[in-house]
Structure formats: structure tokens, C-alpha cells
Amino acid sequence: MKTIILTLFLLLIGVGVSSAQSSLERNVIEEMNLARTKPRLYADYLKEYRKLYKGNYIYLSRSNVRIATSEGTSAVDEAIRFLLRQKPISPLQSSSGLAAAAADLVEDQSSSGDTGHSGRVNGSMDRRIERHGEWQGSIGENISYGYDNARFVVIQLIVDDAVRGRGHRKNIFNPAFRRAGVACGPHAEYGAMCVIDYAGGFSR
What we know:
Layout lengths: L2 E8 L10 H17 L1 H12 L2 E2 L2 E3 L6 E3 L4 H13 L7 E2 L1 H17 L12 H8 L1 E12 L4 H10 L7 H6 L6 E9 L3 E13 L1
Parallel strand pairs: 1-6, 5-7
Antiparallel strand pairs: 2-3, 3-4, 6-8, 7-8
């Protein structure tokens, strides 16, 4: 049975977009794989990230931007406990087809400023993925708006502040997902966005 998983993460922050988009996309894959293969090490990164909090706000050290959160450090602490319990799983293999499907959504939303898993032109996640190849097992999608830093993108998806069920985290650590593609770009409302499409298997 095929499974479709959709997860959205919205950051209420606008920051500059990296000029090296392909580097950012590669780095997001690398960060997810580091978290998957060395979760206890990644817990240390979250401990450092926790130091950016003052109350329910995150203060980015490289700017004077303040990010409001719903749960404050309690969500970070819960994510750290999760990572310390999490067993290593296999890394994700990069897929150009899944990256192309993710890029379709970035193209749709970069100028429109829309959010969510369906684009005005390129349609729903499954439609976009199936346009670029054939998937096996299950597919899923994470979307982050606001960050152009790969580690912050992945940390925020793992912490999953205010997201019921921690769906982004589940996608990152889903052992059924073996392939992934990332596309990042500007966003009219939040400055930056990254779309991550996952699949159990994928062939063009």
C-alpha cells in the first residue's frame, strides 16, 4: 500500500536567501543524514541552539531578528530527549527527480507568497512527484519557510514547535524513506523557503 505524508512548517520570519542555492540544498540533505545516522551527536547541536532562546523567543546570533515560538525551550528539550533515544538509521539518498518535484513548489510559491503543499500551477505533492518519476512505498513532504541556513532548517523541523504530532520530525526519521530531494529559493512573504520531498524508492 502506498502512503502519502504531508507536513508543513511555517516560520514567521523573513531572512535573506543564500546566493548558493545548490549548496544550501546539498547541505540540507547532509544535515538530515547527520541527524539520521548520528542522532546523539545532533542532540548536542540542539543543546547549543537552545542557548539562543530567551523565554519564548529565539535570538539569532548573526542578526537582531527575534523569532517567536509557542512552546519555548520545552519543545527543544523534548526534541533532545527524542534524539538521545533515537537509534541511527540509514542515510537518505539524493534524488534529482524528487528535487525537481520540490522545485516545482518553490517556483509556484516564490512569487505568489502562498504556503502549503499545493501550488497554483504545479499542483499537489503527489502530482508533482509523479510528474518526475515513479515512487515506491510511501512519499512525504516537509516545507520550511524563513531560514536559509541548512542546520537551522533541519533543527527547526526536528524541534517542530507547535506542530501537533511532530510530523516534520517523523518524516526526517522515517526509516521507510530512503530517497529525498531538496529545493530552496526565495519566498515573497517569508524571505526563504525549502521544500523536501521524500520517498521509499524513486525511479525516473
